[in-house]
Amino acid sequence: MADSSKQHKYRQEIQQMMYVSGETGEPSVETTSMIEEIVRQQVIEMLRSCTELATRRGSRSIAINDLIFQIRDDAPKVSRLRTFLSWKDVRKSAKDSDDKGGDADIGVADDPAGGVMPGGPAMEEAAKKNKKAKVKLPWEPSSYYSQEVPERDDEEDEEEEEMNHITLQRLVKADERTKAMTKEEYVTWSEYRQASFTYRKGKRFREWAGFGIVTDSKPSDDIVDILGFLTFEMVQTLTEEALKIKEQEDLWKERSGGENSGTKKRKLTQGLFDPPNEGKTPVESRHIQEAFRRLQSRPKKSRAMLNGTNLQQRTNIKLF
After folding, report:
1. Phi, psi for 108 (deg, rounded to 5)
2. How far is it, in rounded angstroms, from Cα 292 to Cα 203?
3. What pLDDT, on a 0 to 100 scale, did the predictor assign at position 243?
4. What are the backbone dihedrals phi and psi of residue 147, each rounded to the nearest 5 degrees, phi first?
5. DSSP labels, 177-197
């Protein structure tokens, strides 16, 4: 037990992430430990693949593109990550300009008549620097050409449209979860949204993720921030999938009776104006295990390609 308690270091953070994802009950230590171990396996697999990519190009250090390449098939997640990195760059640029005293020069330019006029080249230059830049990836078709097509402000690509659709769905879910909350519960929910594996926990995360063991590369701050973003998404995906499984299980018990049908039915009976019963009983480790199994399932197309061949199917962990 002592070794297990030392190994699992993120119970509180995982509880907070699960709460934000819809699990309003208090999950057991077994459940949070299983989630932490699954996320740790995902991070280790990601770092191992990144190290192989870096070695192929003759580098010892992992690059940002190596990490993004691992999730390249999940276009909405890549788009959310690019947005995260873009706004991070904007905040960094704004902070640098504040540190250099740029506020004194922004918004003021020399008038040709000898006076001072608002705006002008200085303000335009500052606006360009603080504009949210789009993160470009080397495997995208646009990177194959030396000249770039000018971007239009009113134009959105397919990835952004898909990301906006999924973001809208998440906002609807968040609205459903929070509309019945009290003021104190909503404040708690808002604080829990800031939960992170990496924020102000860099040393602990490096030890936990196996930096120095899985990879010899010393991670940059950007690499750690990206991993922090991805680990939150992993916990959220696992929790949402486990809640779906639990909801299906509760619905089946309600219809078929299950164990102790009388008491179960009275507990699950819900009035028209009652708040949703999502998370009233916490998700258990078996729900997490089944959610992980479903997330690891391969598409039928990839399995069918190997039928009638002597090739073995891939057994590597599937990233989600």
Report:
1. -130, 130
2. 28
3. 93
4. -105, 140
5. HHTT--HHHHHHHHHHTT--S
